[in-house]
# Entry
Amino acid sequence: MFQINENYLKLQGSYLFSTIAKKVKAYAENNPDKELIRLGIGDVTLPLAPAVIKALHSAVDEMAVRETFRGYAPDLGYEFLRSAIAQNDFARRGAKIGIDEIFISDGAKSDSGNIGEIFGRENRVAICDPVYPVYLDSNVMDGRAGEYLPESGRYSRVIYMPCTEENDFLPRFPEEAPDMIYLCFPNNPTGMTIPKTELQKWVDYALSVGAVIIYDAAYEAYITEEGIAHTIYECEGADRCAIELRSFSKNAGFTGTRLGYTVVPKNLKCGDVSLNALWARRHGTKFNGAAYIIQRAGEAVYSEEGQRETAEQVAYYMRNAACIREGLEEAGYTVYGGVNAPYIWLKTPGKMTSWEFFDYLLENANVVGTPGSGFGPSGEHFFRMTAFGTYENTKAAIERIKKLSI
Ligand code: MLT
# Structure
């Protein structure tokens, strides 16, 4: 008789955004007259930029001609895209990343879920609490999390780093030394970020305890303030301890088109084993590349028009962020984030639980957000709203929330 991977039985409930989608669908079916505004999942609403569309069309045309048709992509991704990335995302920021340290993928979600495959089961994992659920769930699936403890809502082998109002939503070094540390800045879900000087301390800490940092920089395009690193490789020594995950979803609207990449520096080693070589082996064996046309679209993001047009999109979403932040503050809410990130993290009113507030908002304002407790126990009594809606809907949602009598 075959056996299953029993670690899957340790997962709690369904994936957060699937649960929300089901709840919202049920509400919409029972209330067909209500116009819902969805500010829950961080999915973009603006169409792809004209420069990206142009590149897509021309790549599609190439695929129709024998001489320019492309089959399988190279293992690491096309060099034209990896060169554009190395130059624009790293060299321009003073970080030296070689094109053979960049692995093109179909997005940061897959990479953040898959990266665990090159690490041992016994590693102790440290995550922020609250956290993007993929880091935790994928470690549960991989058998690294231990047992679920219902009384605390935590797993026995995971090291939780609470990010709360008391510590400005910045994790502190854990008491037990971890082997793998997941960091995401600008942060999902809190919308807060970390000064470069503080990030440098995490790099120094990881080097001193022999840990690897898995750094999710999917939201770097939303950084507006000075003194914040756009890539962890701006920090000294990060090439010896950090893997960085990047996405085209949030900076260029590729949520439905799928494109991302992971940087595994050659200097990152476990003893004399290169993690770059391990990830290359994994990538070559299990992944057949992002589509050529999508990689061409990604390349266009780095063109002059692409950079201008995608910056305009980011500015559009940041106007939404300001609208949410300021509107909620006027309505008396305590609000965080939304300055260097497209997420606003608000405190639920009157000590409502996160899910109580979710239901309340859905039923009374027909606005969908994300319950903070879905991101971890320290997210309880918080609620996340995304700035990725249309401006009109965002404004309307805030007007509706302002009218509520809580
Ligand atoms: C979110 O809402 O947290 C994001 O959309 C999740 C993701 O990017 O996968």
